[in-house]
What does this fold into?
Amino acid sequence: MNLPDMVNEFYRHFPESKKDGVMKFIFLPESKMIMVNDKIYNNKRKAHGVCIPNDKTITLNSTWWKRETNNWRKLKVVFHELGHCELGLDHPSNVFANEIMGYNINLVTDGSDWDYFVNKMKRKVK
Ligand SMILES: [Zn+2]
It folds into this structure.
């Protein structure tokens, strides 16, 4: 699954969010990405993705993207960033919550739980 397929998958689940046009995606190397506090693993690391709503742009960490071989983890980040920008969702108040808007970078490793997490995300959208 490549990036356009992942983005299409998001809009298939959340068609209403496509009304104002789709988000643009750009790639930047890890050195250009902002630092984030990883509350699950209690360390600072470079962000995998960042969403700027006013620019309708999501920036992905190209270094991580090339290194990560698991498409489910990439899909989680794509959904997470689109969740911020297209659905207006925030991070859960419980940092350990297992959900797409949560911090767990290893939330999904295969497709078996994917529908469960997407449905959980749908319930948060008003
Ligand atoms: Zn986030």
Observations:
- The chain is about 35% helix and 15% strand.
